[in-house]
Specification:
Distance between the termini: 32 Å
Structural class: mainly alpha
Strand order of the largest sheet: 1-2
Strand content: under 5%
Shape: globular
Mean pLDDT: 83
Oligomer: single chain
Length: about 250
């Protein structure tokens, strides 16, 4: 079964640094992260995978891809993400936002040449990028324990369940030719990772325990998204892009 998911598969391209699998004393553990020991192990695996595969590929992609083409590819996948966002805004009865998402898709898919040009943003039509994890949160379902997914990166029990809905709504899920489908999934992952290369300095300046920095930043951001509020505190929002992908590693 295909497991394409717009947010999760972009996260494939941006898994992170790790400081190892050191355990945390029981009295110091965050109650939001009861599986910390396992999560740290997955985090280490993700970091090794990123350093060995995704980061070198992303650097090569960035080196050979002209900036206008790179930006166009990013815009194309952002346009697909607006479809998911429109559905989720409808499920949350945020009709104005849903209308904005639909308007973005129509404008960018036509005037913007299948989304390669983000005409909607130039027209002042906002992008919300809602997903099913946010929809579940809107209807009162708690995030549950923090969860570091292999390859896909930071998540929670609620957001992992939400993946199923995003898989179905993702326009790429309806592509029947496997070579086209997996080619698009791979391109989206590499493009997302390449777009985050320039943001590495933020994560490099993070606290010594970067696992905790990532966890706290992720959970804070997801809470802000569910509640339509603004990020506050020390978790720097600039390490995240508009597609809800995680911060990058070395």
């Amino acid at each position: 079964m295909r497991t394409g998911y717009s947010i999760g598969l972009c996260a494939l391209a941006v898994v992170l640094l790790a400081s190892g699998c050191a355990s945390t004393p029981e009295e110091l553990r965050d109650p939001r992260d009861p599986w910390e020991s396992v999560n740290r192990g997955v985090y280490k695996f993700n970091t090794d995978f990123d350093n060995a595969f995704m980061k070198p590929i992303a650097k090569g992609y960035q080196a050979v891809t002209p900036e206008p083409v790179d930006r166009g590819v990013t815009n194309f996948f952002g346009n697909l993400a607006d479809v998911d966002s429109a559905v989720n805004n409808l499920l949350q009865f945020k009709l104005a936002r849903a209308g904005s998402d639909v308007g973005r898709v129509i404008v960018n898919s036509t005037v913007g040449i299948l989304g390669f040009v983000d005409v909607a943003s130039n027209m002042g039509i906002p992008s919300y990028k809602e997903d099913f994890g946010q929809t579940l949160g809107y209807w009162g379902i708690g995030s549950g324990p923090y969860l570091m997914l292999p390859i896909l990166g930071p998540s929670s029990v609620r957001d992992t369940v939400g993946f199923a809905g995003d898989i179905v709504v993702d326009p790429l899920f309806n592509v029947r030719k496997n070579e086209i489908y997996w080619g698009a999934i791979g391109l989206r992952a590499v493009d997302g990772r390449a777009d985050l290369l320039t943001a590495e300095s933020i994560f490099e300046e993070a606290a010594i325990d970067r696992y905790i920095f990532l966890r706290d930043a992720y959970l804070q951001r997801r809470d802000a998204q569910v509640n339509d509020s603004t990020l506050t505190g020390d978790a720097a929002p600039d390490i995240w892009d508009d597609e809800d992908v995680g911060p990058i590693g070395d």
